[in-house]
Amino acid sequence: MKEDGKDQKKQGRRKKIQLYKPRKKKSVEEDAAIQFLQAQYDKINPDNIKTFKDFPLSQRTLKGLKENNYVTPTEIQKQAIGYALQGKDILGAAKTGSGKTLAFLIPILENLFCKKWTRLDGVGALVISPTRELAYQIYETLRKMGHLHDFSAGLIIGGQNLKFERKRMDQINILICTPGRLLQHMDENPLFDCSHLQILVLDEADRCLDMGFEATMNAIIENLPPDRQTLLFSATQTKSVKDLARLSLKFPTYVAPHEQADTVTPESLQQSYIVCEVDEKIGILWSFIRNHLKQKVIVFMATCKQVKYIYELFCKLRPGVSLLALYGTLHQEKREKIYNEFCRKSNVVLFATDLASRGLDFPRVNWVIQMDCPEDVETYIHRAGRTARGFFGKGEGLLMLLPHEEKIVEDLQKSKIPINKIAVDPSKVQAPQRKIEGLLSDSTELKQSAQRAFMSYVKSIFLMKNKEIFNIQQLDTDAYARSLGLIVPPYIKFLKNQQYMKKQKDNKDNDVVDKLKSTESDGDTDQSVDKNDTDIPGLRKKGKKPKKKDEIIKFDFHHDADSDEDDFLQVKKVDVDPGDEPIEEAPTLSKKKAKPLTKAAVAKKLLKKKIKVNTQVKFTEEGDAIEDEKRDVKSELAKQFVNENVGGIDIEKAKEVLQEEDKFDKIRFREKVKAKHKEQKRKLKNKKKEEEGEKDDFGSQSESDGPDLSWLPNPDKHYGKKDDDGDSDEERSEASDNEGSDDDSEVDQKFHRPTKRKLVESKGIPQASVAPRKVRKVQDISASLSVSEAEALAMQLLSAKR
Fold first, then answer.
1. pLDDT tens for each residue of 389-416
2. Is residue 710 in a domain?
3. Of 323, 440, 527, 716, which residue is most buried, by most CB within 10 angstroms?
């Protein structure tokens, strides 16, 4: 038993190790079924088709349709599937939501099934869609209803991993892609091979073939084999001979079951429009969302930056319902997440551009609001078709128009689109204008987003082809800016320049005509006028007309940015006749002035003018500039380092320079400390002199001045001139020296410096051995005395010692 168990384990391991499963061979019965199906293709009659079982389809396809509740085909499916199975080229046009996706997916599966297509055969079917979301939706539909077949399918769109796609490109049978990424694989990927292509499908063909994808589609079609079947589907199908010729269609069959219908939009779609001013749109949209919190709404706008700003703004205002935003500049993973989230939720508002207007099947959408006027009728049809989809779908559409955009209603009615005008109840409109302005004042990022939204909307209006509806001159840009919360509207440079140039051109043309008329009328009467003195607007020959006293001098302070400061006043007109009518001239702007002034240009100007930026200069009281000692290098190494003009910084050399400069910094610091101490000593001396110079109790003057002896008689008159006062002067000077030494001792004691006497004692010299300064002074005095006077002085000193 144990051995049997071991054998079973070994067999299980061997089964796990097997890398390839043996392919089931096509049975004879399957070949017979394929021949039977192909024989029934010519007998297909669209009028007899009631269910998908009435089509000659394989069992795998029928089972996949049944699992996804696809039972009864629509009108476009009844007609398109039969012709496609017969191998004909098709131009399919039908209403939005009529099931065009299955109309080309079923023929793709049946065609490859009948030809026994395998992974080794390469790409057999190619489906191209204009947007990533639509390609993703087609891929999901194919994966659900065609999972029973053995074909491999791939989704090739921008924003995904290119390396992952490259490695698997040779194993894909059905390729669903966008034009840009497909062309990239054609140019760069050697594994991509479409030489055996059987079917080419263009979903939303009119968008794929328009000017935006013209160059890309031409390059793709050149790489495709001419022997193929081509299917084109769209709600607004193109009939251009040029477009059809590019695709090399062979006698295409035009399938349009709803062409004779009363409307080109779904019958269950209720459509209406309102006329309002541009500054009322946000308030109406806010009030609408507040009153429809339990419904699913799509709001279409003209540009990505508008969608981004309105989404951010409404998230801060908090209307009480989930908000989503879908636009082209988002990352692909985020776009797919938003798409799936909107499909899943039942109460949500989606702000979107025309990216979401084509082909996307959003379930149970209640309202489609077109906040900005659509570019044309086709765009309106695709936007409005996001609601009222399927058999039992109902929906409503609302179009917001400005007064001068109401002309598009005539085009809609001519295209069999029933649309009614309604009015908005002003009492129910609550515009959160104050809140919006407050939010913008608090958030700089939100304000910048509002400015970008403003500019993008104005540019979109300016670039529209239909100038009868989209007239930029009739748009109140200031009011629109205020509605976005911008108190100061942004400067529209391209619009101002165009208006200015147009005005100048008109003025010049009118002036030329007037001058020609005046010269013709004055030619017979005024014979004295010189023939060479022609008066052309903007030009006047000098010297032909004498100057007058009352000349009009015109100054321009704004267009002289590159001139020096001294010449900012310049005369623009010299010889101007006050009798003539003033002629406006456009300021001649040089190419240099037309370019934006960059930071590099500003820096060059400063260098030319030798203006030092980011410098601090100190001045003395006399007005002399004080040099910065920190930047005055002393060492030779530092001077050499400063003079070297080498890019970058040598850290090791900079360290050596700092070490050398540190020595000089220490010397400089000591000098500063000494100067500070010296100044403090001087202040203490002055303070002590002031204290000693105050008056005593008897009101006598200060000792420095001495007693007032002006009342005494002059002793020189009575006793003759003597040098007795010399002693007193010397003694006085000696006293002053002693006082100064005392002051010095106090200052030294304050700053912890020993006196000279203490220094002598510290060196071991007795204080008695040091001769006092007074004795030295007396010896100096005795040298100037006579012999008798010296003897008398010596006797007095001896008596004093006893």
1. 876 678 999 999 999 999 999 999 999 9
2. no
3. 440
